[in-house]
Amino acid sequence: MKQRQQSAILQCEQVTVEFDGFKAVQGMNLHLEQGELRFLIGPNGAGKTTILDVICGKVKPASGKVVFKGEVDITRKKEHQIAELGIGRKFQTPSIFPTMTVFENLEIAMSQNRGVFAALRAKMTQADRERIIAQMVMIGLERKADWRAGLLSHGEKQWLEIGMMLLQEPEILLLDEPVAGMTDKETDKTGELLHEIAKSRSVVVVEHDMEFVRNFASKVTVMHEGKLLKEGSMEEVQGDDRVAEVYLGKRRDADVSRSTA
Amino acid sequence: MQLRTLTPQRIYILIGYAVAATALFCAPLYLNDFRLNLLAKFLAFAIVALGLDLIWGYTGILSLGHGVFFGLGAYAMAMYLKLEASGGRLPDFMEWSGLASLPLFWKPFESFGFAVAAGLLIPALLALFLGYFTFRNRIKGVYFTILTQALVIITTTLFIGQQALTGGTNGLTGFSTLFGTPLAGEGMKHTLYYVTAVLLIAAFVLCRFIVKSRFGKVLRAVRDGENRARFIGYNPAVYQMVVFSISGALAGLAGMLFVLHVGIISPSMMGIVPSIEMVLWVAIGGRGTLVGAALGAILMNAAKSVFSENYPDAWLFFLGLLFVIVVVFLPKGLVGLFSRITFRKREESEEHEAAAAISHPAVRAGNG
Amino acid sequence: MEVLFLQLFNGISVSSILLLIALGLAITFGLMNVINMAHGELIMIGAYSTYVTQNIFMDLFPESMFGWYFVLAIPVSFLIAFVIGLILEFTLIRFLYGRPLDSLLATWGVALVLQQLARTIFGAPNVGVTSPSWLNGGLTVLDGVVFPYKRLFIIALVAVTLFIMYLYIYRSNAGRRMRAVMQNRDMAACLGVSTRRVDALTFAIGSGIAGIAGCALTLLGPIGPSLGTYYIVDAFMVVVLGGVGKLIGTVFGALGIGVTSTVFEFWTTASLGKVLVFVCIVAFLQWRPRGLVAMRTRQLDS
């Protein structure tokens, strides 16, 4: 157990979240290893997004705690403090700054001192510029540096947001349905990006698209009604009866709706 | 975009600045004293507009309380002038109210340096204080706006109520000299005009620096999506507090200059109506552009002094309708209208996107 | 003992006036998220409607009937403010849904125009409205403690208005449609509710209640074109303190501000009392940033 705690970059212990008496998450445990890519799946209302909200500080749990790197208790910290510690969050709907250019979006996301006075004095160095340009190349937006972010397509906005997250250089990246609403081509490209990202940091991905998840040989956590249902490889999870009952049964419907959408 | 090459557009802008600065400094040559004094007052108003634009146009927070910050600056200067005019005796209105000696908090205002510092710092600190108790708790949007308006009401009632300390409804007036030189003298008028022009340019440069710095970009990010900014590690509350405070200090500076030019400050000049008129200057000129805000203040006040003298009733109708028209049809103000006419080639949708985001800050801030 | 009674009564009386003024706002601001700065001017319109009704009674009806003008003035004020609210919604407000700060600025412009209009029609000086004789005098509760009938009447009027609004919003079909639209516009539209009609009606009802408030204010003193501006910010504070979306919050908000300001003004001066009330409100918002009664949903950011 001790061994495990030391290598774990994030531990959620017995986290319970209540919304006016409704328990969205009940006693959830999640251990994330350094450098791990973890998928969080489960039917609607399973509490997947809520647990991400707890980790990044958007929602305060009624009980339980979240520990970062085995020592920092981040349960009661504010969102911006958690972000500064090194936990980045990408929301389901693309949330970029629409009136700012792609370049500016990346510029303010770039890891740097977030204080007011530092921001007043900050200068764009050659190294910074190269970093941002390299990032734009990676997300494929280098030719749209001067575009207002609000004008990008849905997929481009998602990539921009992922690019922003990466420049932020978090140790843990929380992604909420990164391929929702994307075309197949966009989905493939996002998959490539994700492979690239997972090389250097720990990532938690909430995902509905099982085809997408299958592309990655990594651990899968299944949630159901706010609780942990099953954890293991994709094969193990798919072989589990309870999972088939609550989740895979519904998956077929989900696939149907996807193909007709 | 990062390269500082001299594109034709940049050259036009630079020429524009040069012309504006020249016109500003040559004004005493072609304006009579009365007009020059009016212009000086408008320039002071332009400083308020710049500060208001920082908080509203760039950060998306509407303050209807800038009259208070303006007024506090004005009162600080007025207290100094009043003491100088009283020449060591008790100011007249205090005598009438039956005060025996100068109240303690008036004493330091015998020093010009203290008065100026107070005129900048008191508004800045009040803004910081109000900002601390609101932004920290994410009280924003409409709620914040209403609280600033309440601040105006209580400040004016307080100033009216404390007749003996503040001069009550009449405010402070009857000043004579500054550093021993009569305020009404021609030389003094010209000097004060130049001081105001220089300070306006300084305020403009300061605001431009803020807006162009990374700090300014974070402000726009907070305007576009406060929560998003939070999740990439910025604490919006601190940024909002700092910019609100700077904005308050600029209003205070403008208030000090206003008193020097006009020679009176009373609670009615810092009330609800002047506060909201300040917002109109920025709205008409174009929120989110510094030039627009400053020009808006100057043009609106020029229009006001022409119309309201001749047709006082029609002026209020006009002002009201202007408010409605600008808000509904011209969310980017005159500057937006102007650039739409000149740069027609630019994509319409781009304009739209920006206008929508600027006019819906509260809505945007809500999206995670 | 007498002092306590009197202060308590004064507090409730002030609260009732605040509540009457804020009720309309609770609808337009609380339910529709439109910041109607012209609300004060709708109050002013209600007051002038009462003034005109009074004049018509004086001119056309025998003196014995005069006492009854006020009974008629209440629905008249409501109707006139209602119609003007409807016009306002149709010509302006509907362009401003979802833009609360812009609605604030635009309606302030409307407020200026309406004030100036009133000045043009009725003149700038205040005019007095003669209260009906049956509202003069008061109820003697204890020796030296008299509750004026006018104040009691306003309290009763507020209670009745509140009750009717409660029935309308929570017990009628129209009210159900209104709540549906305010809570989930798209869904309501899908279910066949005409959101345009509901919006217009809701705004007009809020305006009409402002008219009733204006009518009640004529009992308390002379009225003028800038009558509304004295009350508008206080009314907004009531809604902010009470919380948005539920009527009961507005009731508590009005009681809170009304009673505390009466107490503070009794202890200190009128101007200091106002400052203290403001400080209390800001302090209170530290504890509950969304006001007394806030509608909570899973969407924490809504």
UniProtKB/TrEMBL annotation, chain A:
SUPFAM superfamilies (UniProt xref): P-loop containing nucleoside triphosphate hydrolases
Organism: Paenibacillus sambharensis
Protein name, as recorded: Urea ABC transporter ATP-binding protein UrtD
Matches recorded under NCBIfam families: urea_trans_UrtD
Family annotation (Pfam families): ABC_tran
Record-annotated ABC transporter domain positions: 10-250
Keywords attached to this entry: ATP-binding, Nucleotide-binding, Transport
An example Gene Ontology molecular-function term: ATP binding
Keyword Transport among record annotations: yes
Keyword Nucleotide-binding set for record: yes
PANTHER family with a match to the protein in the record: CONSERVED COMPONENT OF ABC TRANSPORTER FOR NATURAL AMINO ACIDS-RELATED, HIGH-AFFINITY BRANCHED-CHAIN AMINO ACID TRANSPORT ATP-BINDING PROTEIN
Cellular component terms (Gene Ontology): plasma membrane
TrEMBL record, chain B:
Residue intervals passing through the bilayer: 12-31, 38-58, 64-83, 112-135, 142-161, 192-211, 237-266, 278-303, 315-338
Signal peptide: none
Location within or outside the cell: Cell membrane
Keywords tagged on the record: Cell membrane, Membrane, Transmembrane, Transmembrane helix
GO cellular component, one term: plasma membrane
Molecular function, one GO term: branched-chain amino acid transmembrane transporter activity
Pfam families: BPD_transp_2
Name the record gives this protein: Urea ABC transporter permease subunit UrtC
Membrane topology type: Multi-pass membrane protein
TrEMBL record, chain C:
Signal peptide (UniProt feature, chain positions): none
Protein's recorded name: Urea ABC transporter permease subunit UrtB
Membrane-traversing stretches: 12-35, 67-92, 104-122, 152-170, 201-223, 235-259, 266-287
CDD domains for this protein: TM_PBP1_LivH_like
Record-level Gene Ontology MF annotations: transmembrane transporter activity
Location(s) in or outside the cell: Cell membrane
Gene Ontology biological process terms in this record: amino acid transport
Membrane topology: Multi-pass membrane protein
Top-level division of the source organism's lineage: Bacteria
Main location (coarse class): membrane
Recorded GO CC terms: plasma membrane
UniProt similarity note: Belongs to the binding-protein-dependent transport system permease family. LivHM subfamily.
Pfam families: BPD_transp_2 (PF02653)
Keywords from the UniProt entry: Amino-acid transport, Cell membrane, Membrane, Transmembrane, Transmembrane helix, Transport
Record InterPro entries: ABC_transp_permease (IPR001851), ABC_UrtB_bac (IPR017779), BCAA_transport_permease (IPR052157)
